[in-house]
Amino acid sequence: MARRPLPRILKGGSASITRSREFARTAADNATDVLHPLITVTRGLRLLVGAGRQKWAVTPKDRRGHVLFLVAACVLALALIPYGPLLALVSVMGAAAWRGRDRTPAKTGPDEAETARLRALYEALVPHFSVTDDPGPLFSHGGDWEKAFGTSYVFDGDGRLTRLQVDYPAYFTDGDPASRDRVEQVLHAKSGRGREYHFAWDEEGNHLLMTVLAALPTTIAAQRFVTAPGETVLGFTDADAVRRTVPVQDGDTTRDASPVIWRTGARSTEPHLLVAGHPGSGTTTLMRSLALQALQHGDVLVVEGGGTGEYGFLAGRDGVLAAECGLAGALATLEWAAHETERRLIAANRARQAGHPEPEDIKRPLWILLDRPSALGHLAAADGRQDPQELLQVPLRHGRAAGVTVVVADQFDSLDALTETVRTHTRARVVLGPADREQIESVLGTRPHTTPTQDVPPGRGYTRLGAGEVLRLQVPATPDPFDEATSEAHRQSVLDLLPGGAPVVEQAAPEAGVAPLSAHGDRLIGAPATAEG
């Protein structure tokens, strides 16, 4: 079969096509240069017309007649004087040309200072992204930084990097945490300290994206959040970190914020919480926020080991079974909580065996908030008494099935004093205040993808729920309303969330062999605390 010849345009027409394209491109550029004054005047006329419309829109209706009369008088005067229309046309064209000129030329690349910063950053990464036997190294001393950074960089008004994408060679050990930490430390140091950077490693594409994170807002105070029963707001995080938003009152405005939701109850995978931080980091603020949210659907037991009276405003409120700060009261309260957990388990088991729904007296959630248990442990050891943490074994082990939630808060220097049971069953973790990556990893189990800063406001930190990812966190402002340093707005926001005072209930005589429920004078008489035999 004879081969069919190719069309002439495909055999020898490539050169003519190229010349035609160049001619068309040249003609378009020349036309743009010639028509540039007309384009400028047209743009200026459009801007002048838009400004006139805005001026007319803001003019009060009772003055629009006077404005029209003044414009008509000016037009009549221009029409009567010699060369008036021509002068008016020249004036309008001149104003349009001046308004439509290019005021800010487009930036085509980095300036000298930004180029110097990028080159210094490139040279600092050479020891980490290069090997001696690489025939075509991407990173080399005196090399081309544009090959590694390209054009994916953004600077702020102060000339510091806010976004940078680094292309690294495929042989770099990006799966090694130590190698990653060294690179992130260099980027953090060379890009400017005092800011929080987020590092996203793309191991498939050999890319590292560094971005500067904006500070989380600290203006959200304690309030009634839109959540379902069993959901608690720990705080708020970045908008792209979670899928859910809730409406919040931020000062005088209402906006949508991205909450960190902690789910408790029978179907929760992380039913208990551990909070760690330095003094003044906001751990007590988080405990107060959790107590106010828990009182909406449940009962609360508060045990404070520090003895500072930070939870005194909860005493005598509906749903607050006890608010203790002494060793004797803490032991009696936690012993009652252990018996109550056992009683709930037994009642629920008997109801299931009989085919009946659970009794109403075990459906209401019970929250145990224990602040600074290490301080109580030292007092108990000095007095030869039982460590209060030992009484948490039953609520921690069986609290999910019994509707009991335990929250423990302590300081970094006292975490070693926590028992193995507490550390094992508190899989939801929060770290607040200034802390380095090693301290955060010791609590959360993994390092965050950001660089912690030393200057943070109270209530700022990180959280991890079980095996999930590490999220930034800002706790809602929940100060002690009895503190004189609390502002009136924050004091009122906390008092508005408190339930009313509980009525006085006479205590029934305890059964034989059963310890009294309020041996320390508290209000634990609201529910039975004896495990049924």
Mean pLDDT comes to: 85
Alpha-beta classification: alpha/beta
Rg: 35 Å
Sketch the major β-sheet. Answer: 8 strands, mixed
Q: Could you give the count of β-strands?
A: 16
Q: Quote the beta fraction.
A: 15-25%
Total of DSSP H or I helical runs spanning 4+ residues: 14
Q: Estimate percent helicity.
A: 25-40%
Ranges with pLDDT <50 over ≥5 residues? 8-12, 502-523
Order of helices and strands: HHHHHHEEHEEEEEEEHEEHEHHEHEHEEH
List the helices and strands and how they pair.
Elements: H1 8-12, H2 14-58, H3 64-80, H4 84-99, H5 112-125, H6 145-149, E1 153-155, E2 161-167, H7 177-191, E3 197-202, E4 207-212, E5 231-236, E6 246-250, E7 253-257, E8 259-263, E9 273-277, H8 283-294, E10 299-304, E11 320-324, H9 327-354, E12 366-371, H10 373-383, H11 393-402, E13 404-411, H12 420-425, E14 428-432, H13 437-444, E15 460-465, E16 471-474, H14 488-497
Parallel strand pairs: 9-13, 9-14, 10-11, 10-12, 12-13
Antiparallel strand pairs: 1-2, 2-4, 3-4, 5-8, 6-7, 14-15, 15-16
Helix pairs in contact: 2-4, 3-4, 5-7, 9-11
